[in-house]
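Write out the 3D structure for:
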Amino acid sequence: MCGRRIEVRRLHLGRPERPVGRIALAVGEDRSGEPGVWAALTPQEARGLARMLLLEAGAMEHPVADPFSR
């Protein structure tokens, strides 16, 4: 673990008559004090990120030999 705290929350922006909703992703500073980052994502962007994270996590857990790496 890198010691970062990751938070995911709903973010409501705009006026009540024209609300804008986002998913806020906040990655806190690491153990050495490097600053964190945050992003406000649309629901579509959040779903895309979730898909990519799941694919990469699966690839990391079950690596396949790359025939072009020789």
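The helical segments are 43-61.
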